[in-house]
Amino acid sequence: MKITVDADKCEGHSRCYSLAPELVDVDDYGNAFVLNEGQVPEGMEERAQLIVDNCPEFAIEIQEG
Amino acid sequence: MADAERCPVENIATDYDIFDPDYIKDPVPAWTEIREGQCPIAHTERWGGSWLPTRYEDVQDLAKMVPELSSANPGPIVVNVPEEFRRPEREGHNGAAPISADPPEQTWTRKALLPHFTPKAIAPQRTYSETLCHELIDGFIDNGGCDGAVNYAQQIPPRVIAHKLGVDESMVDEFIIWVRNVLELGLTQPELRLKYGDMIHGFFAVEVAKRRQNPKDDLITALCTTEVDGQMLPDHVIVGMCNLQLVAGIDTTWSSIGSALWHFATHEEDRRRMAATDHNDPLWDSAIEELLRAYSPVTMARTVMEPVEINGASLQVGDKVLMNFPGANHDPEVFENPDQVILDRQRNRHIAFGSGIHRCAGSNLARMEMEVALKTWFARIPEFTLANPDEVTWAGGQVRGPRIMAINFG
Q1: B346–A14 C-beta distance less than 8 A
Q2: What DSSP string runs through B351-397?
Q3: Which terminal residue of chain A, N or C, has fewer Cβ atoms less than 10 Å from its own Cβ?
Q4: Residue-averaged pLDDT of chain A
Q5: Per the CB < 8 Å rule, is A13 touching B359?
Q6: What is the structure's pLDDT at B237?
Q7: Which residues of B are less than 8 Å from A56 in CB distance?
Q8: CA–CA min distance B115, chain A (Å)
């Protein structure tokens, strides 16, 4: 499983960083970027879904495969 | 307008009143009625006229309409301030940037401010807040009760903001008075808004001048030395940004803390559940987000600059639009059982802090304050109820929360 953050949509709410600092980090402006090229380690799939479901800007997506 | 002069609301879709006492006490039924009616974007002629979207999708779309909708003319407030009560030299990006600005000024002022509000940048305020919350509780715990709004919720954000700005804590009572007069009373009484706005700008003009002489380790000094795109911030912009700390960082957060206490004081099952929850449990995170969603305090406003057609509504140049984030957060299209507080709600794309380019710059700070305020309260006062449920008073308009709320402990 892989996640992506759409930088044009992200407005720096930082909810993803609060919920899954293992998957994403934020820059000085709060804008999120993926860690490990977006690869979701095994066992963290639910957490990846959680950050998708809690992004107010609909900026995070899961890409299977 | 005094209550005696108030005309009753006949048709909510064409005559809503955000300053109506019933709406302030509980706006949810009004949003539901509008959302389910013919026009989910209601209109009123009251208070100079405005539009009130109630669907999540509409509010999200409107929040992203830049430059069609402006935050700068004269600012993100719903009322039209009469000319004699305006100060054009401190509107737009000189008012309370970036909240009162449009791009391009919004962009560079926001860029200057955001680095001071990242999760890492606010860490010193967490330690300060923890000590503060304990000290406040020390002051009233032996009394068997307190006013949860006046003695607790209202005391926290102004002190945290003063600490961050580097302003003496003795200013806190003044800050509370200034902010209430600008926002709570000032929207319907423009003479108060002007008078207290003058006081805030005057106070911070002096503080900025002092930091230029004697730099300190605080936000005002940091802004005085901030460069954006190779340019230093002008003093009047910094003064406006300090003003923003007060008008956006104080009664908003104290409203959220107060509403959360009100919820737990009136919902025994939820109260007992949080009292029994370890501070590291993820339930705390979802519970705070859920309370932010269900009791979102802030409704911003925009002024229409270009005609907009949206969901049956024709917004005309000069019209006011309410950014009804609280109402959007109760839309059943997006939130299952929206009017129910579900502390472990897993899917929560609420927009209590707005969305788009004006997303609340202080959201990390506000969330931290709410978390510390509630965790500290529950650790010391796990069991509590309202002393006089019928005597709780709420402020509303553009910032909603309890203002008088007697609580009994135990």
Answers
A1: no
A2: -TT--GGG--TTHHHHHHHHHHHHHHHHHH---EEES-GGG-EEE-S
A3: C
A4: 96
A5: yes
A6: 96
A7: 349-351, 353, 355, 359
A8: 5
The dihedrals phi and psi of B214, each to the nearest 5 degrees, come to: -130, 90
Q: Do A28 and B115 touch (CB under 8 A)?
A: yes
The tens digit of pLDDT for each residue in B353-363 reads 999 999 999 99
Of A11, A29, A53, the CB nearest to B356: A11
By Cβ distance, the residue of B111, B346, B353 closest to A13 is: B353
- Asked whether the beta carbons of B52 and B12 are under 8 A apart, the reply is no
CATH class of the domain defined by A2-63: alpha beta
pLDDT of residue B349: 98
Distances (CA, A) of B204 to B171, B199, B201, B210, B243: 12, 9, 5, 9, 8
Please report the pLDDT score of residue B204 as a whole number.
Answer: 97
Distance from CA of B252 to the nearest CA of A (A): 17
Chain B interface includes A44 (CB < 8 A): no
3-state secondary structure (DSSP) of residue B70: strand
Q: Is the pLDDT of residue B6 over 80?
A: no
For B236-268, letters b (16+ CB in 10 Å) and e give bbbbbbbbbbbbbbbbbbbbbbbbbbbbbbeee
- Residue pair B407/B385 in contact (Cβ under 8 Å)? The answer is yes
Q: Do B119 and A26 touch (CB under 8 A)?
A: yes
Supply the pLDDT for residue B1: 40
Per-domain boundaries in chain B: 3-409
pTM: 0.96
CB contact under 8 A, A54 and B119: no
The model's confidence at residue B8, banded by pLDDT at 50, 70 and 90, is: confident
Separation in Å, CA of A16 to nearest CA in chain B? 11
- Nearest chain B CA: its distance from A27 CA (Å): 8
The DSSP output letter for B99 is T
Average model confidence (pLDDT) for chain B? Answer: 94
pLDDT grade, residue B165 (50/70/90)?
A: very high
**How does DSSP classify residue B184?**
I
Q: What pLDDT score does B3 carry?
A: 42
Beta carbons of B349 and A14 less than 8 Å apart = no
Percent of chain B residues topping a pLDDT of 70: 99
Predicted local distance difference test score (pLDDT) of residue B4: 42
Q: What is the ipTM of this complex?
A: 0.97
Poorest-confidence range of B150-164, B169-183, B326-340, B371-385?
Answer: B169-183
Contact between A29 and B114 using a beta-carbon 8 Å cutoff: yes
- Whether A28 sits inside 8 A of B356 (CB atoms) is no
